[in-house]
What we know:
- The structure holds two protein chains of two kinds.
- By secondary structure, chain A is α/β, with parallel strands linked by helices.
- In chain A, the strands form three sheets. Chain A has a seven-stranded mixed sheet, sandwiched between helices. A four-stranded antiparallel sheet of chain A has the order 9-10-13-12.
- Helices cover 40% and strands 19% of the residues of chain B.
- In chain B, strands 1-2-3 form a three-stranded antiparallel sheet.
- In chain B, strand 1 and strand 2 form a beta hairpin.
- In chain B, helix 1 crosses helix 2, helix 2 packs across helix 5 and helix 4 packs across helix 5.
- At the A-B interface, helix 9, helix 11 and helix 13 of A face strand 1, strand 2, strand 3, helix 2 and helix 5 of B.
Amino acid sequence: MKLPIYLDYSATTPVDPRVAQKMIPYLTEYFGNPASRSHAFGWKAEEAVEEARAHVAALINADPKEIVWTSGATEGNNLAIKGAANFHKTKGKHIITQKTEHKAVLDTCRELERHGFEVTYLDVESNGIVDLRKFEAAIRPDTILVSIMMVNNEIGVIQPVWEIGEICRAKGIVFHCDAVQGGGRIEIDMQKLKADLLTITAHKMYGPKGIGALYVRRKPRVRIEAQIHGGGHERGFRSGTLPTHQIVGFGEAARLAKLEMATDSERVRALRDKLWNAIKDMEEVYVNGDMKRRIPHNLNVSFNFVEGESLIMAVKDIAVSSGSACTSASLEPSYVLRALGRNDELAHSSIRITLGRFTTGEEVTYAADLIRRKVSKLRELSPLWEMYKDGVDLNSVQWAAH
Amino acid sequence: MAYSDKVIDHYENPRNVGSFEKGDQSVGTGMVGAPACGDVMKLQIKVGADGRIEDARFKTYGCGSAIASSSLVTEWVKGKTLDEAATIKNTHIAEELSLPPVKIHCSILAEDAIKAAIDDYRKKHGVEPEAAADRKKVA
């Protein structure tokens, strides 16, 4: 077993060696510009791009013509949200999203607010999931766009995007779904999911970084405004020379994901459950987010009275991430956990463990043992743990905030 | 975040972890910070008959730098008089541990913890602490 062990598959995944092999010839040998129509170099590259487009479309049961290449999820979300809002701004100026979206959605909405749009940021329930009645109640006559993610990046809960799609379709509202954490991990069928726009990216499904796709529905057709202008690539939706090797990698990653998703998911779910079963009997341990309506590879746990950043430092043989934003120079705990109504101690005490295709049972056993030992060690260091053990109610203490 | 070797050393081998009996007349206890901010430090000093700090203990809830800062000051205060210990500044701690700017608050907290412990000790012995007025006491 090699250390450190990678358990941060929601941040990014390694490129599958089969994907890397497929990409290499498109860097050195078939390097043509897919937009070059005048020679065989261009034709060869274009053929590879279109083959990849078919694979990505097949992964989500869409038409290849509905796939627009982007540089990744952030650009995809920007193109979808700004593109739809700006195209439909004469119809209305109201947008609905939710508080636990990724920053690529939240910050894009904030930017639109600066340009005169009004945005409703829906609360989520304590299990991390949006309440459909509250969602429906937020819809206004001038609502033009809804953006709700499929799978939350921190806590892995699955939002009711299928129901939200039906509601939006019935009311004629454009529905964008950020499916970055779901793509290649859970089944997405665009014949069943009534999203008009859907963002996915390669590097969360064992493809390379720097390439993503925006699904843009043709039936019924959704209209968006381009955000990057130039040579009119991607039928005018997104200009810029296509990175053939990246696209080939995305295509192969999507092809493999479609083939292996069912077996991969079950294997990873068993490992995730094994990990949780190995730590859940500890005192004051809480799972963040609904455990059933959740992607199989995610575990987000709060170890009460232990600070998340020091825990991550203590378990440096496993690569995990903090739910807490401490490391980014902010003292604010995770906004996602706060949206769940978690108190400060629990929000500061969380770690996100995400498993994937190359995680082994041996690694999970090692991780669980390491976490148990280090949590106990840090609790011995923790004045809060000592107070808890002495029966002090921490909420009754008047803290000197700094 | 890349930590300095000294932070990692204190974090992995923290000095003087533990607690003294709070009610002991020779013990001063300082607790500073708040769970909401992600840092709580408890520092205790044991003062000998000669007025010098003969021993110290800490417990800290917080990041690696907070743990290292409090571990370091338990070493520094030993052998010092209360007045000497009160001269320890956060800048000394930050310098010794090479704390990056985002972690300076950890050293400030450690300085506050020393002062709070000294105040508590003095209060027990009927000396009105100088700095206690502007600091909220932790129950």
